[in-house]
Amino acid sequence: MLVWFLQRLLNARDTATLLTLRTALASLTAFVLALLLGPVAIRWLKGRFRERIASDSARLDELHANKKDTPTMGGLFILAAACLATLLWGDLSSRPVQLGLLTAVGLGALGAADDWIKLSTRRKGLSKTEKLVGQTALGLLVSWVLYRHQAQYLAGLDVVFPGGAYTLGLGIVFIPWSLLVLVGSSNGVNLTDGLDGLAAGCMVFAGTAFTALTYMAGNKVMSEYLQIPHIPGAGEFAVVLGGVVGAVLGFLWFNAYPAQVFMGDAGALPLGGLIGLAALVCRQELLLLLVGGVFVAETLSVIAQIISFRCFGRRVLACAPLHNHFVFRGVHEVKIVVRFWIIAALLAIAGFASLRLL
């Protein structure tokens, strides 16, 4: 919305400088909006949507009993701040920006429906099948549009191995591959959202890393130096992610221990989807496994727990996802969260290091 105004005001011919400014402004705008919206949203949510502690583990419910009645669905004001910042500072003619907004709104609506059913009825939210169908429907739409967009660029449909030495062309298989990335990353963040500040803090590190990666993928000089695919227009997605990171930081102001609000599925599902979309836009899905390693570990811990119990009648963890295992072991919640943040930061650094070292 303000792209044209900035171009005229600054007489900016250097598009890289303008993109850097808009990304920073989107992040700052979203952060301020989240801080301003937070108290209002929390008061509104407190009267309507309070957390109900009703997991499949009686012991986990007991350990989390103090979280009962905390306002939830705070993801709504994360998305509001991020989307408003994107509308202000993003180039709305950009296909990646359009897909980012679609993903945020679509998965946000799905997550909000899941939260609403969970809090307003006796059901535990949408069934796994219903949720997966919703994610798949939106994922197929986003994947198809992204396929049409990326097909025009060299390496736009390639899987790129870390270091850029090896690539694998996908062709039309890009669509199911993209669907897998979008649904997997969406659920990964959702599984991580279980302790105060955990998912939000890890999302800040992963989101910041992919803000930089999408920016560099859209810059010909930087992409050549780092030996990553140059995808024209990918840098515009940095504005979207910059807004997301700023909004999550603003949300974390209220979500830090002891949390005044939870994000709920209304926030976790779209945040995961957006980080997956960022990886697809800049062709760094495999790097997402490293940068988003905390989300991957949480997902794998659930899969391992299910397989182990069904096949051998034993559980490999005291409780899944992984963060709950440490809760059961008596580690204080704050210590678990901070340690996961440290790991998330190190993984983001390792992801950048791999671009030149491998």
Describe the structure using short key phrases.
two-stranded antiparallel ribbon, globular, 358 residues, mainly alpha
Please explain how this structure is put together.
The protein is built from 15 helices and 2 strands. The chain is mostly helical. It is globular and about 55 Å long.
Low-confidence stretches: none
Number of domains: 1
> Could you describe the largest sheet, including whether it forms a barrel?
2 strands, antiparallel
Measured between the Cα atoms of the first and last residue, the distance is: 40 Å
**Which strand order spans the largest sheet, edge to edge or round the barrel?**
1-2
- Tell me the radius of gyration: 20 Å
How are the SSEs ordered, and which strands pair?
Blueprint: H1 3-10, H2 15-46, H3 58-63, H4 75-89, H5 95-120, H6 128-150, E1 158-160, E2 167-169, H7 174-192, H8 198-217, H9 220-226, H10 236-255, H11 265-281, H12 285-291, H13 293-312, H14 322-328, H15 333-357
Antiparallel strand pairs: 1-2
State the gist of this model.
With 358 residues, the chain is an all-alpha fold. It has 15 helices and two strands.
